[in-house]
Amino acid sequence: MVSGKGGTGKTTAAAALALSLAADGGRVLLVEVEGRQGLAELFGRDPLPYEERKVAEARGGGEVAALAVDAEAALMEYLEMFYGIRRAGQALTRFGAVDFATTVAPGVRDVLLTGKATEAVRRREGGRRARREEGPHAYDAVVLDAPPTGRIAQFLCVNAEVAGLARMGPIRNHADKAMATIRSAATAVHFVALPEDMPAQEAADGLAEVREAGLHPGFVLLNMVHEPLLPPDVLEAAERGEVDTEALAQGLKAARLDAPRERAAALAREVTAHAQRVGAESAVRQRLRALGRPLLELPFLGGGIGTDALFRLADRLTAQGVAR
C-alpha cells in the first residue's frame, strides 16, 4: 500500500515501486482505486479498463500489469461471484442504486475497492477455479496506489467495520478475508513525503495512525530530493551567506563572459538559495529517520515523469534494497 499527502507523487512512487519489485522476472500487479487514471498517463497508455493489463516490462524480463478498480464494476463482479445475480446488479446500476449506495455510505465503495485488491493478492495461478491453497500465486507482489494519508487507515479498516455488522454469510466471509490480507505481515503501508515540513508531518501522522489500527507500517519514501551540487563545506558556508563573490567574478571574467560582477552576484544568490534548500531538506530527512522506519529517497527530476524516468526511479529503489 502506498499513501501520502496529495502532491507528494505517491502514484509515481507506486509505479516505480512496482517496476522495482518486478525486476529479474517478477510479476507485479499495480492497482489504482481513485478513478484518476494516473497510471495510464504515467505509462503512456489509453485509460485502463476494469481489467488487468500489462503496462510495462521490468528489468530482467519482469512484468507489471495494472488495474484501475471501478466500484460499480467491482460490485457487478461481487454479485456474480457470491450470488450469481449479475443481471440484478446491472438493473441496480440502471436505476442509480449503486451511485446512491456509495454516496450515502462511502464505506461500501471502500469495501469493493479493497476487496478487489486483496483478492488479487490471494489469487493462485489458474484464476478463481484454481484451488486456493495450492500452486504459486498469480502475482509475486501487488502494489496499491492508495488514497491520501488523511483517510488511509479508515480506507484499509473499513472491512473490519463491515465484518462487525455482518455476523455470517458471504459478506462477512469477504470482509474477513480482506482484513486478514490487509493485516498480514506480508502487507505493508508505505508513506511518500516531500522534503518539506507539512508532507513530512503527514507521513509521521499516517505512520502513527496505521500502527494504532494494528496494521504494518513499511518504509518512508522521501520524494523529489535535490542532489547537492557543491561540496559539504561550500554548502555550509553558503547557507550562512558566505559566498566568495569576488572569486566568482574572477572566474567569470576568465571565461570571458560579459558583466562578470553582475553575473557573480546573481550566481552567489543562487548558490545561497541552493545551500539553504539542501539544509532544509537535510533537517526534514533527520526528522523522518527519527520515526524508526527505513527511509528511501528518490531524486527530483526536472524533465517531468515518463516511462524512462519511472525506470530511473525504480533503479534507485532497487539500489536501496527494495526486493520481493
From TrEMBL:
InterPro entries the UniProt entry points to: ArsA/GET3_ATPase-like (IPR025723), ATPase_ArsA/GET3 (IPR016300), P-loop_NTPase (IPR027417)
Annotated Pfam families: ArsA_ATPase
Residues in the signal sequence: none
ArsA/GET3 Anion-transporting ATPase-like domain boundaries: 1-161
Tree of life domain: Bacteria
Protein name (Swiss-Prot/TrEMBL): ATPase
Organism, scientific name: Nocardiopsis suaedae
